């Protein structure tokens, strides 16, 4: 029986915490390690209590200096701890991500039984989940409230997370691990490139991906065995709460209307996770039988309700909600008309800044960016397909 560990970072996640932890336990993740920083809603106190109730839950406070980045700080610390790396399998997840394992009962053991025996890593591609048209803050179960998501072809949502066997000289990353020193040491780089990783359909990944990619290509995309529903937006009011909370990489204005419009994807029905709802509800109910935890949870819910009340009284609330509505109304086939610079490399962001300084209209800049990105994607796809054909993996 393989021991599986999930690592995450949280801040102000009281409404969703019990569902997320219960879900990990339900699918067979024995150890859950959570780093928190500057919680205001009692998430940290809830985790302290959960850790006393279940030795498989570990809570670590993550003090971050002003201007610091909580996620890299937590990852750097976590990779030094035995409780993180002394496990058969490890994955780094966000608190709005839930593994959707398709074989068997949807447990991690079912997934591991479905991939080749020598597999050292499973690259799991996001399925971006939308708001389901919900406007108000909806504090119920995320996996029940949001059941519509992106189609397979939504390339902007092809980011990945990796379930992998820990290895020597491990360097943790939020999307996938690497080998320390691989950039300078050819032997260590070859060790990284030769690891036996597969995609979400159990097919081998390419050396190009292993060399540092964190997104699937058209050649490496796979959803047959496992995918990762990513509830990045939720309802419009929940999204505004997320803006207030900030983000783990301290990126200013990350959660703007453009981000909402890009990732509020509702084109396809995605109800696979709902099969876990009966057991999930039972596990949450068991947690809440503890009076201390139940009280902390109630206080956390009240804190968020108060934040929503304050949002609704702000004079710009209606305008902000309307901006999200306009962004989400942009059709799927016109998303490239939105100037979305967050995933661009520094060189791409510099190009956008230069075009803006010259007075180029934003719509024209968006078109230029889309064409540039598409060209790079075609080139990457071609290299990946060529390698897989040369290895006899595809025809």
From TrEMBL:
Identify its membrane topology class: Single-pass membrane protein
Record InterPro entries: Nucleotide-diphossugar_trans
The source's superkingdom equals Bacteria
One Pfam family matching this protein: Glyco_tranf_2_4
Places the protein is found:
Membrane
Tell me the keywords, alphabetical order.
Membrane, Transmembrane, Transmembrane helix
Where would one find the signal peptide in this protein?
Answer: none
What is the protein named?
Glycosyl transferase family 2
Q: What organism is this sequence from?
A: [Roseibacterium] beibuensis
């Amino acid at each position: 029986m393989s021991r599986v560990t999930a690592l995450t970072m949280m801040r102000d996640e009281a409404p969703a915490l019990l569902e997320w932890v219960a879900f990990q336990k339900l699918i067979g993740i024995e150890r859950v390690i959570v780093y928190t920083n500057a919680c205001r809603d009692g998430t940290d106190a809830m985790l302290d209590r959960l850790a006393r109730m279940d030795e498989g839950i570990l809570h670590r406070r993550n003090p971050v200096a002003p201007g610091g980045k909580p996620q890299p700080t937590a990852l750097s610390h976590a990779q030094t701890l035995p409780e993180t790396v002394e496990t058969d399998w490890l994955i780094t997840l966000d608190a709005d991500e839930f593994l959707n394992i398709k074989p068997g009962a949807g447990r991690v053991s079912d997934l591991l039984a479905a991939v080749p025996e020598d597999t050292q890593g499973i690259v799991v591609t996001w399925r971006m989940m939308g708001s389901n048209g919900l406007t108000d803050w909806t504090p119920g179960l995320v996996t029940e409230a949001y059941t519509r998501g992106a189609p397979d072809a939504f390339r902007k949502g092809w980011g990945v997370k990796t379930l992998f066997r820990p290895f020597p000289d491990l360097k943790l990353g939020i999307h996938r691990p690497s080998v320390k020193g691989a950039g300078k040491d050819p032997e260590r780089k070859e060790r990284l490139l030769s690891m036996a990783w597969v995609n979400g359909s159990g097919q081998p990944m390419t050396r190009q991906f292993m060399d540092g990619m964190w997104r699937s290509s058209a050649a490496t995309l796979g959803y047959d065995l496992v995918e990762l529903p990513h509830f990045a937006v939720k309802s419009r009011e929940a999204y505004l709460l997320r803006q207030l909370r900030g983000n783990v990489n301290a990126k200013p204005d990350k959660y703007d209307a453009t981000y909402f419009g890009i990732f509020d994807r509702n084109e396809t029905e995605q109800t696979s996770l709902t099969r876990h709802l009966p057991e999930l509800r039972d596990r949450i109910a068991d947690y809440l039988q503890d009076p201390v935890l139940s009280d902390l949870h109630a206080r956390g819910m009240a804190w968020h309700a108060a934040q929503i009340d304050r949002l609704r009284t702000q004079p710009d609330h209606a305008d902000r909600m309307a901006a999200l509505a306009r962004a989400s109304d942009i059709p799927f086939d016109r998303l490239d008309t939105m100037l979305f610079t967050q995933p661009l490399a520094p060189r791409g962001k510099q190009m956008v800044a230069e075009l803006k300084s010259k007075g180029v209209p934003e719509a024209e800049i968006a078109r230029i960016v889309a064409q540039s990105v598409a060209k790079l994607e075609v080139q990457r796809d071609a290299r990946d397909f060529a390698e897989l054909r040369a290895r006899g993996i595809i025809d």
